[in-house]
Amino acid sequence: MRALTFHGKHDVRVETVPDPEIVNPRDAIIEVTATAICGSDLHLYDGVIPGVHRGDILGHEFMGRVVETGRDSPLKKGQRVVVPFTIACGKCFHCARQQYSACDNSNPAETQDSSELLYGHALSGLFGYSHLTGGYPGGQAQYVRVPFSDVGPIVIPDGLSDEEVLFLSDILPTGWMAADNCDIEEGDTVAVWGCGPVGLFAVQSALLMGAHQVIAIDHYPHRLELARALGAKVIDYRHSHVLEALREMTGGLGPDAVIDAVGMESHGLAPDAVLDAAKQTFGFGADRGHALREAILACRKGGRVSVPGVYGGFLDKFPLGAFMEKGLQWRTGQTHVQKYSQDLLRRIGEGEIDTTFLISHRLPLEEAATGYANFHENKNEWTKVVLTP
Q1: Would 89 disulfide with which of 47, 105, 122, 229, CB 3.0-4.6 Å?
Q2: How much is the pTM?
Q3: How far is CA 293 from CA 11, 94, 206, 329, in A?
Q4: Looking at domain 172-332, which CATH architecture does it have?
């Protein structure tokens, strides 16, 4: 089959690789009909996520048709399914508490040690991401093996197109969980750093959850316009002092909740951002956390901090004093996709949530390298790339 493979920083290629096979009775094989490039894929593309090997198949946002099943899979050949990027067994301590992205059994034993050494516990399995998360082949391919197919895949009813439901695989539930983690109350102001796909879905979700005011922060004009079209107020950090603007927009109090949808590759020309970028370039410190620092400083006393943005290593200059003295609450983590899937599918079907507004480009899988390069370099115009194998 054909698949997009990683070969180093800013070097991805579509190559012929072996077809996947059933290896466990709970497996299924999916023929991919649509897949997308995620902002998290760009962290791999930039070479800042540890544990990615040459030849690894990328991609964790995908859907398709079931073409083969193990004997214990409930799926039927021909069904259309969306596959969550988090792989979960459905039976362990964490899955029983709907903490699917903390599954204890989806990361194979042979790849658990490195993440346990780095993070204190073994991570769960993720598609197309890192050998810290199992080294599973991803979905930017013609076919993919789906472990625990009795837990993850969402069967899609007729009448919904691939593009309407594809983002149930990651960015829609990730934006939804980011807002859910804010415990939004009537009258709340929520500020969102980053108007990439997750940030835009966090904006949309926070408004649906009843936020009185959502403020989106970025510097790309088109992405800010998309946030404004959803109903957010916006701040362009190239033209405004973010902390001063937020104080003015919240009567001096600060946002009740803040969402960092930027993660480990924060941009900007603030002194800490410039120093972070230099250190990351030369391998001293893995994460660039300007957006997170600014969000913590902006949040009102007693407020909530939600972090869907990905971090991979260590962050210095962390404002722990501000975090403690202001009594902030913090919630983060990879997304428990399976917890939210059915509710979000219903909302899409009823027309409450539109997931297609951010798609800017559609390409065949063979042009995936072009998609990565443009999604990386031309963020204003390339807001989301959907690939068709």
Answers
A1: 105
A2: 0.93
A3: 31, 30, 21, 14
A4: 3-Layer(aba) Sandwich (3.40)
